[in-house]
Design a protein that fits this description.
This protein is an alpha/beta fold. The chain has 13 helices and 12 strands.
Length: about 400
Amino acid sequence: MTLANGRTYLAIPGPSVMPDRVLQAMHRAAPNIYEGELHDLTRAVVEDLKKVADTRHQAAIYIANGHGVWEAAVANVFSRGDKALVLGTGRFAQGWGEVARRMGVEVELIDFGRRAPIDPTKLTEALAADRDHRIKAVMCVQVDTASSVRNDIPVLRRVLDEAGHPALFMVDCIASLACDEFHMDDWGVDVMVSASQKGLMTPPGLGFVFYNDKADKARDTADLASFYWDWRPRAEPQVYYQYFAGTAPTHHLFGLREALDMIAEETLPTIWARHSALARAIWAACEAWGAEGPLELNISDPALRSHAVTALRIGAPHGTALRHWLIENAGVTLGIGLGMETEEDPRGDGFFRIGHMGHVNAHMVMGVLGAIQSGLTALNIPHGRGALDAAAEVLARP
């Protein structure tokens, strides 16, 4: 017998849970793409995206996923042979660097491993060694979706300023926008990329690049910007089709409009506080389980953990076995141990992730924790007691 029948729960770090309001907004006939409602909606969406990013500068929308906006950001600031400094803290900054390298950019990677944030002193040393200012941009993620580490973006900006280095500061907020606090202008970020399918609660398919005047000046000489990836017509279109270099993603826009309305209604500070409380409840449960078993939070310091995703170590084959048990018996899907493969564990079977981003509330989190505890028990994986009580204590006094 299985208890998985009923509404399933996709507890992975993107695509996140789609609100009914978003899905209902998309369930409508195709609009007139030449004039009228859609044009007004798109202009308003762009302005409201800037509010979420906390920027007064430019925003470009792409019909793309996160990898697409990685390429868009690279294309608009680099020329072939330029140099980028990539600060890796798991998997995704490295992936952005790989995209840049494939496009002809020289990439220097400082890899901080899978369990640690960026060390500002290493960035200071790298910038000091770059006496000729060959580094055109420093690239990193605010939250690495694989390791679940959260980097201190304002501290990294201060390092750049104190070094007097002219490099652009480029930040991937795909996993963190509208989940963890972020202020593009106040934190001195020149280029930020994000996507629709995580904190913005809209199906995968839209990517966003936010950029300031300093970044746009780099566009003057960048030789990688093709017709499609060029951000200038998208940010300041003369005619409507230039927003998307062609036909608009009509129904994604309807869904995004509703998601942005939901964000405005709840307010960003409240959203950040909700994500923090739900994350701390998950951590409390995981720490209780780990007190008498192999389960371990990948990031040990709570101050360095994402509020949108939690990466966990449990030892092979328990990670994969637990995920499969939850799918088959509880209707819950957890995230795979992405980027955690080792020689001893080549498939990452000893890892899993819990996504808790976007349209998530207390009963959903308690439900997934209860399902995990059932799986630990069913599979005879050693674990401590009191996990659900510990989570409930957090939620009772968030």
